[in-house]
Specification:
Number of helices: 3
Helix content: over 70%
Number of strands: 0
Protein name: Phage holin family protein
Organism: Paractinoplanes rhizophilus
Number of domains: 2
Low-confidence stretches: none
Radius of gyration: 31 Å
Keywords: Membrane, Transmembrane, Transmembrane helix
Pfam families: Phage_holin_3_6
InterPro entries: Phage_holin_3_6
Shape: rod-shaped
Order of helices and strands: HHH
């Protein structure tokens, strides 16, 4: 009697793991597609912003050149640009996270807890003598 139960448990556990992996794969595909679109738009925005920063840098350097030598004005402008780039890089690094399939992980944890609870309940039944077939004589 135990062998078919063990086989059934093994089959169900295998099926459950496969379903959880499929759910995680689908969730990551969806998140990956969304991230790819976002990355493309972010790249386009960066390219346009790069031209804007260049134009702004020329404007700042030209304005500073009215009150100081041109070389000093360009050096100050370049220093400000590099400081801004460093601040943006540090802020961006802090915002980076790994994409995880949270729903699939939570579902897997619930499944593991359900199996643990079922095993505990079965063990308690066995200890109390209930659910056990009568002894053979």
């Amino acid at each position: 009697m135990a062998t078919p139960l063990v086989q059934q448990l093994t089959d169900q556990a295998t099926a459950l793991v496969r379903e959880e992996l499929a759910a995680a794969r689908n969730e990551m595909k969806t998140k990956g597609k969304r991230a790819a679109i976002g990355a493309g738009l972010f790249g386009a925005a960066g390219a346009v912003a790069l031209y804007g920063i260049g134009a702004l840098a020329v404007t700042v350097a030209a304005a500073l050149a009215l009150v100081m030598p041109v070389g000093a004005a360009v050096l100050i402008t370049a220093t400000l640009l590099f400081a801004g780039a460093g601040a943006a890089a540090l802020t961006g690094k802090g915002q980076m996270t790994k994409p995880l399939p949270e729903e699939a992980i939570a579902s897997g944890r619930r499944d593991v807890e359900a199996v643990k609870d079922a095993i505990r309940a079965h063990a308690l039944r066995d200890r109390s003598g209930r659910g056990r077939p009568p002894a053979r004589r």
